[in-house]
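New here. Your pick:
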Amino acid sequence: MLLWDRLERLLIGLLGAGALLVGTYQVIGRYAAPQYASGWSDEVTVYCAIWAIFVATSQLVRTDGHVRPDLVLRLMRPELQRRVEIFNCLVALAFCIGLFWYGIHIVSDAFDLDERSETVLAFPMWIYYSALPTGGLLMTNRYLIRLYRYVFRFDPKTMAIFAAHDA
């Protein structure tokens, strides 16, 4: 899992840096040298940023970074927190599997139709849309790991938001 985490963070960093570099090139090109301004850089910046965001969702699951009602969970006993977390994992899994499933259909349709962007780049949109099923699959795997831990490896001292020894 350490390799998986490192690869995701590296990919997020590369995509973010790519978006930043291309965006900076565009801004400088517009004001300093308009003749070098490109018609494709805004598009590439968005593609890189969206891909980075969908890959980052997996890291958010791993680190409990997604939006959730922590305040309410802190008021519960560890065993009740566990049940709520299991329910949360099941609901999130349903969403992520749906994101993956429908994302695959969107990518397939875009590929079959040879859908391309309307800029001079004429970028194949199936590559851009592939961020949907990729993010869905990455989050599905993370939620499955999380669910397994809450069901079979629950330790109230380390996994509860407000452990019994803190009372």
Summary: The two ends are 33 Å apart (CA to CA).
